[in-house]
Design goal:
Strand content: 5-15%
Structural class: mainly alpha
Order of helices and strands: HHEEEEHH
Shape: elongated
Largest sheet: 2 strands, antiparallel
């Protein structure tokens, strides 16, 4: 009987050893993940946020000149034209101030009406209609 009890004790010790090794490995993995999280959030966080901001906001020019589209007899059906897209931030336009270039103290106009007055000749629209769209 003594031999069977010592064999059982040896098996229990091996089982505890496996359990302890498994717990140590899991604790190491958890600690590694926690350290990586701290590194990404605290140390690299501001840089990663700036990179994301730069990737989201971009200005680029798309050039796609095409020739005219002709029918079977050579008459022009469609042709390429240049188009300008203008966007307006409707929250910030309320605070728009146009100042004199020579004397910044002199205010020429404010708000959407002034922006429309300046943009209308460039866009070929009536300033009142353009101001209403803003």
């Amino acid at each position: 009987m003594a031999k069977s009890t010592s064999g059982l004790l040896t098996q229990l010790q091996r089982g505890w050893r496996r359990t302890n090794v498994t717990l140590v490995v899991l604790a190491f993995l958890f600690l590694s993940a926690a350290l990586r999280l701290v590194y990404l959030q605290v140390i690299k966080g501001p840089q990663l946020a700036e990179t994301a901001r730069n990737n989201r906001i971009a200005t680029f020019t798309i050039e796609a000149p095409r020739g005219p589209i002709l029918d079977a007899e050579g008459h022009e059906l469609a042709t390429s034209t240049q188009v300008v897209h203008v966007g307006v931030n409707q929250v910030l336009i309320r605070d728009y101030v146009n100042r004199d270039e020579d004397d910044p103290e002199v205010i020429i106009g404010v708000g959407p009406a002034e922006a429309a007055r300046q943009l209308a000749p460039l866009l070929g629209e009536d300033p009142a209609v353009l101001g209403g769209k803003m």
